[in-house]
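Hey, I was hoping to borrow your eyes for a little while. No rush at all, and the record is pasted right below:
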Amino acid sequence: MTPVVRCNERYVFCWRDHAGHAYELDDVAWDDPEAVVDASIDLQRTLLSGFGGNDDVPREVFEEAMEPRHVAISLDGEPTLYPYLPELVEAFHGRDITTFLVSNGTRPEVLAECDPTQLYVSVDAADRRTFGEVVNAVEDSAWDRLVETLDVLAAKDDTRTVLRTTLLNGYNMHHPEWYAAMVDRADADFVEMKAFMHVGNSRDRLDRGVMPDHADVVAFTEAVGDYLPTHPVLRDVPKSRVALLAREEDTWVPELKGGSEFWEAEPNRSRS
């Protein structure tokens, strides 16, 4: 789900139509966080309701799906543009629903107030010039704010943190040591490197050759890992052209308010 369908960056690799993500927010009537939670759950149930009449779907599985236990705040737009994002995260937690928050890192002051179960920040360049070419941010301060966000992540004690990079041939697959330095500064639990996919509106901006092979993704991830002895675990999924670096030790997520226990990440399992 997403609390706002607006974005302040224009990634060259984005599958979305940038014209549909106008950044102006003056005309937005913001919904109350509790109302957003109610609507998210109700719409999820509506979306899946047809499976209740399918004899091939086990009844217990259907009933479980009607009570969502996890929310990904990442579908569309930049969620930190929603002015009540910290309250929204807490509203989900108040219902024993874990939160997976994805951000472009341009609102460090908002992320500092958010304590999701897992915080996932896009780092699609390791230097200012490449950032300008790949991200096309609307705001001039976007790079500086992303760097500030790294410090915000480092201060998170009870939130699992991930830095994610979309890799593009000929654009941002260089200087692995600089990416490693950003991971080190953020003290991130996980590092995800994923190939750009030549789909949607990105096809109007980039050639198909910009999409790296899985072997290239793994090779670059290994190069970053050479500078990160703190993240010795490497996992990859060829079908998704994605690779993950992780710490050796467990990353623990405390119980939510209702007492339900959630993940203790095992080092041999790649969750991101």
About this structure: The chain has a mean pLDDT of 88. The chain is about 30% helix and 15% strand.
